[in-house]
Amino acid sequence: MDLRMMKAADTADVLSLIRHTIRTVNTSDYTLEQTEVWADQFTKADYWSKRMLASSTWLGVEGSRVTGCGSLWGNEVDLLYIHAEKQNQGLGKQLLHQLEVEAQAKGVSCLKTQASLTAVPFLKQQGFTALQSQSNFLNGVYLKNIKMCKKLNI
Fold first, then answer.
1. Which residues are CB-neighbours of 24 under 8 A, at least 6 positions away?
2. Looking at the 3D structure of the chain, how many domains does it have?
3. Which CATH number fits the domain that encloses residue 132?
4. What PROSITE patterns does the record point to (predicted)?
5. pLDDT (tens digit, 9 = 90+) per residue, 38-96?
6. Cα–Cα distance between 133 and 104 in angstroms, integer?
7. Of 25, 45, 65, 154, which is most buried with the most CB atoms under 10 A?
């Protein structure tokens, strides 16, 4: 598994990966209606391409296949998605470590994220602490997530 920075040409593959992950992996913690509303947020290619390229977005790739993505936006892990077939194989740890190194280099002392219920156990294993539960209202549907923080050694 190789890591590399995202390029504009990767946008469609990254968004497809994210939607697929939400619709498969996250169904254990969210309803079908919730996952559909959530996944539909990742259809605006122009918006997401600009956002991911403006942040530090890393991809896990096998050959030409995108199998994971992680994005650092300021002091926050903005995106962290791993293909359903690649869960629990170390890619999430690799991507998160890359984002932590970059955050430390920028002087970030507390790396934040808004984690899905599905991601909370993984993030706790990586040293994140839950700060607050929150519900976001998105297209008529509530989606619960957890604000988390990991103290970094800078």
1. 84
2. 1
3. 3.40.630.30
4. GNAT
5. 999 999 999 999 999 999 999 999 998 999 999 999 999 999 999 999 999 999 999 99
6. 26
7. 25
CA angle, residues 60, 69, 128, in degrees to nearest 5: 110
Burial of 110 (0-12, 13-18, 19+ CB in 10 A): middle
Report the C-alpha gap between 115 and 125 in whole angstroms. Answer: 13
What's the Rg (C-alpha) of the chain? 15
Strand-pairing partners, residue 147, are 114, 132
- Contact (Cβ atoms closer than 8 angstroms) between residue 71 and residue 79: yes
pLDDT (average), residues 104-118:
96
In the chain, the amino acid numbered 34 is: Q
The residue count for the chain: 154
| Closest to 4 measured CA to CA, from 70, 102, 74, 55 | 70
Residue 77 and residue 66 in contact, taking contact as beta carbons nearer than 8 Å: no
74: left (phi over 0), alpha (psi -120 to 50) or beta: left
Question: Tell me: the pLDDT tens digits for 20-46?
Answer: 999 999 999 999 999 999 999 999 999
Amino acid at position 2, single letter = D
